[in-house]
């Protein structure tokens, strides 16, 4: 053996030779590599067999895996079309040729070693860079009718595009940058090719007129002139910048003024305007909130004026200045409570009037006011009646868990102790029923999302909760915290809340700083068969390390188990068999480690998406279908790309006239925004699809089911993942209602808000201003964890990729007859 672990073979020269005809090389016994006759015969291939005694002996395996991608030599060739003498706008086509110089496979290696060319590619790049508004025009010609092309061009492509849209109705369905994929410029000189790359030259932000023109060309379908580019909603604007602003392609604080103006026009009650104002304050960061308040505070206070006049039974009564101020303070009070529901405060907007806050921040009064407002949301007698109704139907396991937790709620030991519980049970075992009974016992209301946990929690993450004030007092008085679906949350989220509660409770009793969660009774719920925390590009071991079982306090938790499936009780043997199959999948009790056999009765005859949509949504083509028809139905897929494709198809089937809303995308962390605008063109930013951010072009119809992507108003159930349906489509706001409440529910106006990608996901932070919704015919499997659906379709174009996804998808339905799985059998 040599120092690298290779064997030193004794190869004698035995005068037996072989001549390679192509190269003339003479090989003898010394050139024969070690081989195994059985392997060569078995696989009909040349197999080199070596003894491996060291990692160095296989270093080339590592080298070839990690050596990087193929490399190529590139050469740019620019050609210019001859034109008439008076034409100053020559048309150029850039062609690139590449010869690969290194690949891994044997054929390429042999070709390269013999100085041969491995690959040659030619790509035509069409540069659309004309902005001259005075040149004459020559139209494009359809590539399938080259004989009808006109004489060589003497004008710019942009003006020719306008003339093409004027003369050819078919071209009006395309934007400027899409034209070269359907039409050919000057076909007699430049014949059409199959591989075409279209790019409009980048424009810096410093040249705002041209930058705005470029945005309009990327968005407006079939304009026939520059005036049509500058026209929106029958208004022709003076500049491209004004037109881009009107279309929402550029950011402007005027958008929030337009939002409130539309709300005043269409709102049924003033509370809708107040809620919209709160959404704008929290999510849109307006530069001048005071101007918005001064302009619309009267309309936001109309219901309080009406209430005062009603109480006085005198509609002609003229209010004094002091009475006006009191009414406006009531309006500010309602705005403050809505802000606090999402962990914000009016003091974050110092330009707004603060008189109400000065009174509210007095701790005794503030606590009384906040507690009274919260108590208005439930009826204590109704909750007690609900508790008496639920207790008899709890099974033995549920009642044991209920009594155990209630004992700790009522017990006030002299020495602070840890009081943590985890309710562990698969779907259908009644975790939700148990939680409702516990909440009805204490107050009948779940805890708010008060903890303000950052999105990217890590081991140093802390909650930004104040240690004093009204909110701190409310948390100190809380009896019970319930955290459902805890399995999906990373351990750092829990640990951040743990530290926050220790600090808040430690202000009352210093001993509580050393007790987990400040000695609060905390009940976690979940099922480890389901989806674990999502760790971007994380390995299986990294995901496990982030689970709640790896949290610092896990060994202090008392685990209570629920095993009896309440859904199938009294439903017969078929339901029992269904539950057992689900448990088998969740437990991993299948025959093969990498595959799960789906029962044939659950499978569709094909993986046709249209058939799946019709099966799950049989009334989708009926304009009269009630929104609640979509409440308990969903098509589930593991990846966002499949979800988008299914939603697009369902949108095209859904009746009614649609409307498209274009997002405004920008990079917000660049030191050189002007340079970033050319380095990353807006069409590239528009093409980025990331989880939790809506698409660049959002298509909506009245009545369509949508899902909310942000926590806008937790008190009213407008949380991330809430299903809604569209009630109104305006220029700057959309009207929505909760789908579970149907037409009887309250209507809300949503503005476009700023949504940003997570730091580290891209080389920049992308900020997208768009309505925080997307269609909800299909949703990802992860989004449905914790939900119960009546009818479930599962589209598996390829196998699921994460622990628990298949179990979660199949266990959303309560009856196996209401599950249909569409598999791609070729994958």
Automatic annotation (TrEMBL):
It comes from the Eukaryota. Keywords: ATP-binding, DNA damage, DNA recombination, DNA repair, Helicase, Hydrolase, Nucleotide-binding. It is an enzyme of class 5 (isomerase). Gene3D superfamilies: P-loop containing nucleotide triphosphate hydrolases. Its cofactor is Mg(2+). Residues 443-590 form the DNA helicase Pif1-like DEAD-box helicase domain. Residues 683-729 form the DNA helicase Pif1-like 2B domain. GO terms for molecular function: 5'-3' DNA helicase activity; ATP binding; hydrolase activity. This is ATP-dependent DNA helicase. It comes from Circinella minor.
């Amino acid at each position: 053996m040599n120092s690298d672990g290779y064997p030193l073979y004794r190869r004698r020269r035995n005068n037996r030779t072989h001549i390679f005809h192509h190269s003339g090389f003479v090989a003898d016994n010394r050139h024969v590599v070690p081989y195994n006759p059985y392997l060569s015969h078995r696989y009909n291939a040349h197999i080199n067999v070596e003894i491996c005694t060291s990692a160095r002996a296989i270093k080339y395996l590592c080298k070839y895996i990690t050596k990087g991608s193929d490399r190529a030599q590139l050469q740019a060739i620019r050609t210019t079309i001859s034109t008439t003498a008076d034409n100053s706008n020559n048309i150029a086509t850039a062609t690139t040729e590449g010869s690969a110089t290194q690949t891994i496979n044997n054929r390429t290696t042999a070709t390269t070693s013999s100085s041969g060319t491995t690959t040659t590619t030619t790509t035509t790049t069409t540069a659309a860079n004309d902005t001259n508004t005075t040149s004459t025009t020559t139209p494009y010609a359809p590539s399938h009718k080259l004989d009808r092309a006109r004489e060589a061009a003497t004008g710019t492509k942009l003006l020719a595009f306008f003339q093409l849209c004027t003369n050819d109705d078919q071209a009006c369905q395309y934007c400027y940058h899409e034209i070269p994929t359907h039409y050919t410029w000057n076909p007699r000189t430049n014949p059409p090719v199959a591989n075409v790359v279209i790019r409009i030259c980048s424009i810096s932000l410093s040249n705002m007129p041209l930058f705005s023109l470029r945005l309009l060309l990327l968005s407006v379908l079939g304009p026939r002139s520059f005036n049509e580019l500058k026209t929106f909603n029958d208004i022709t604007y003076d500049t491209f910048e004004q037109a881009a602003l009107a279309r929402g392609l550029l950011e402007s604080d005027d958008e929030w003024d337009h939002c409130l103006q539309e709300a005043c026009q269409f709102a049924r009650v003033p509370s809708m305007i107040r809620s919209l104002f709160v959404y704008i304050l929290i999510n849109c960061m307006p530069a001048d909130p005071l101007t918005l308040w001064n302009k619309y505070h009267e309309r936001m206070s109309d219901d309080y004026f009406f209430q005062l006049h009603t109480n006085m039974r005198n509609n002609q009564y003229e209010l004094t200045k002091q009475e006006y101020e009191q009414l406006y303070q009531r309006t500010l009070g309602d705005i403050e409570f809505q802000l606090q529901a999402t962990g914000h405060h009016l003091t974050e907007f110092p330009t707004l009037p603060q008189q109400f806050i000065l009174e509210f921040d007095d701790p005794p009064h503030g606590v009384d006011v906040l507690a009274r407002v919260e108590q208005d949301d439930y009826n204590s007698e109704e909750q007690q009646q609900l508790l008496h109704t639920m207790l008899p139907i709890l099974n033995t396991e549920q009642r044991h868990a209920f009594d155990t937790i209630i004992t700790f709620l009522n017990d006030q030991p002299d020495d602070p102790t840890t009081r943590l519980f985890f309710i562990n049970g698969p779907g259908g075992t009644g975790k939700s029923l148990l939680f409702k009974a516990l909440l009805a016992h204490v107050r009948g209301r779940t805890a708010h999302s008060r903890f303000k946990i950052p999105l990217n929690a890590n081991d140093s993450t802390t909650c930004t909760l104040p240690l004093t004030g009204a909110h701190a007092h409310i948390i100190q008085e809380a009896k019970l915290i319930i955290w459902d679906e805890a399995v999906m949350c990373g351990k750092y989220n829990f640990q951040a809340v743990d530290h926050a509660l220790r600090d808040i409770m430690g202000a009352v009793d210093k001993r509580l700083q050393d007790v987990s969660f400040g000695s609060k009774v905390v009940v976690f719920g979940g099922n480890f068969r389901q989806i674990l925390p999502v760790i971007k590009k994380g390995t299986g071991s990294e995901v496990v390390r982030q689970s709640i079982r790896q949290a610092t306090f896990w060994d202090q938790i008392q685990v209570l188990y629920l095993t009896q499936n309440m859904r199938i009780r009294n439903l017969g043997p078929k339901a029992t068999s269904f539950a057992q199959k689900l448990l088998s999948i969740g437990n991993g009790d299948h025959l093969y480690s990498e595959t799960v056999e789906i029962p044939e009765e659950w499978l569709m005859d094909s993986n046709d998406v249209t058939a799946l949509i019709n099966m799950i949504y049989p009334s989708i083509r009926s304009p009269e279908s009630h929104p609640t028809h979509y409440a308990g139905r969903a098509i589930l897929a593991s990846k966002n790309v499949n979800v988008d494709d299914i939603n697009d198809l369902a949108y095209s089937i859904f009746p009614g006239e649609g409307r498209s809303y274009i997002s405004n995308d920008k990079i917000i962390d660049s030191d050189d925004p002007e340079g970033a605008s050319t380095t990353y063109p807006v069409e590239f930013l528009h093409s980025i699809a990331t989880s939790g951010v809506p698409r660049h072009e959002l298509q909506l119809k009245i009545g369509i089911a949508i899902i909310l992507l942000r926590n806008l108003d937790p008190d009213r159930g407008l949380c991330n993942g809430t299903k809604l349906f569209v009630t109104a489509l305006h220029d700057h706001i959309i009207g929505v209602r909760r789908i579970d409440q149907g037409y009887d529910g309250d209507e809300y106006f949503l503005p476009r808000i700023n949504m940003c990608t997570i730091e580290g996901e891209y080389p920049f932070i992308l900020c997208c201003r768009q309505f925080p919704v997307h269609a909800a015919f299909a949703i990802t499997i992860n989004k449905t964890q914790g939900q119960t659906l009546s009818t479930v379709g599962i589209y598996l174009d390829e196998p699921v990729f994460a622990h628990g996804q298949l179990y979660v998808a199949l266990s959303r339905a309560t009856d196996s007859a209401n599950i249909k799985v569409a598999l791609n059998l070729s994958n």
